[in-house]
Amino acid sequence: MNIIETDRLLLRKLSTDDAAFILDLLNQPSFIQYIGDRGVRTLEDAKRYIETGAVASYERNGFGLYLTLLKGSEIPIGMCGLVKRDSLKDVDVGFAFLPQYWLKGYAFEAASAVLTYARDTLGLKRILGIATPDNLGSIRVLEKIGLKFEKMVRLSADDVELKLFALDM
Description:
Helix content is 34%, strand content 28%. With 169 residues, it is an alpha+beta fold. It has a five-stranded antiparallel sheet, with helices on both faces. A three-stranded antiparallel sheet has the order 6-8-7. The radius of gyration is 15 Å and the shape is globular.
């Protein structure tokens, strides 16, 4: 079941059937560099990542990260959605796409639709975004969807410093 539909994309809940795609996405050098190594090395690891991450978030929060597919072909190209982290007061918009789908406007299109969904369907009043300082592509997307830089943060004491962006809706 699709949660969000745009002109070119479909966003739906992740399931363990998406494990092969998630295994590929999470092991892209760009994902590891900009988001982090999640230790997902096998299909079983990917299934566990989906179950303990996205699926648990759908049940706990009513939202999460969604598989993002090209409309028509339904080829998975990334994920985009909402994350509630214990270390941040508000929900943040997150996204990751396979590199071959960068610079085509998909992240902007998906993230814009997720913001609209967050405001209009979920009733959220404030959305955050985080990115490593060197992740210029993600920073551009966050700024283009209206988020403004607020401060530097760490999600945990031993984590890297991240740029925190916010939007009051």
